[in-house]
């Protein structure tokens, strides 16, 4: 009796369908997870900038002229977000972060982060609705 070796076409197609279904479930979850993880690029950079501004303020009693507040927009270290420090006055500042292209541009729940000198943190989704808890909360 001769025994065949290998896979039949049906067995191969069934295994490809199973792999396709698993990939269709896993890929969106993976993208969502990496976007959530990349949010820390914005929040961490904003917190570090705020700390540097506060250190400057304790020495000079003004936010104006602090080296931690460069003019214009700068990128975060991993380049996922663009950070803007609104022209600081003597007693206040506002730091804003917006996505700097892919993959974060597709992170619709967290399209902008804001932090003020009073320590207020906020975030907006792509419709302009408040998503502070989701975006600044635990990743």
List the helices and strands and how they pair.
Layout: H1 9-60, E1 73-75, E2 81-86, E3 94-99, E4 112-116, E5 121-124, H2 132-136
Antiparallel strand pairs: 1-2, 2-3, 3-4, 4-5
Structure notes:
The chain has 139 residues and is an alpha+beta fold. It has a single domain (9-136), classed as Glycoprotein, Type 4 Pilin (2-Layer Sandwich), CATH 3.30.700. The chain contains two helices and five strands; from the N terminus they run αβββββα. It has helices spanning 9-60, 132-136, and strands at residues 73-75, 81-86, 94-99, 112-116, 121-124. It has a five-stranded antiparallel beta sheet with strand order 1-2-3-4-5. Strand 1 and strand 2 form a beta hairpin. The N and C termini lie far apart (61 Å). The mean pLDDT is 88.
Distance between the termini: 61 Å
- Uncertain ranges: none
Q: Give the domain tally.
A: 1
Report the order of strands and helices: HEEEEEH
Radius of gyration: 23 Å
CATH architecture: 2-Layer Sandwich
Strand-residue proportion: 15-25%
Q: What's the tally of helices?
A: 2
Summarize the structure in short.
By secondary structure, the chain is an alpha+beta fold. 41% of the residues lie in helices and 17% in strands. The chain has a single domain, classed as Glycoprotein, Type 4 Pilin (2-Layer Sandwich).
